[in-house]
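Quick one:
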Amino acid sequence: MQEDHKIQEPNFEGLEMKMPKNGALQAPDADAGSSIISGPLLLILALLLVLILGGMYYWFSTLTTTPALSTPEVARPTPEQNNEPESTTAEAQTDMMLVTSPSDELSAIEADLEATNLDSLDAELQNIETELEASLE
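Output:
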């Protein structure tokens, strides 16, 4: 399976060696090899790409916009609409708090503090806490 292949070398004897003039390569003529892609076509393609990307960005931004947060309406009636006390002693305690002395004397302030009844405060806070727990369940 061994074949002898004789390689023939080119013979350049007697041929004159030619050097390029001016020592630089010359560019081929533009008319000889006109390209399919030219300057105006590249500009049109670039503008088309920018328009497509801008349209996609606008479309994506309209899909991902979050709706404006609206303030929830208060379902609780105003004091003018609701004249009922929240507890049986709430109005009485509120009326008693309004009967404080307008004086800034130390004896008047001590008298107002002694007249303030905070004994039922713990019971009221406990009632509020149980109502909140019941509403969460």
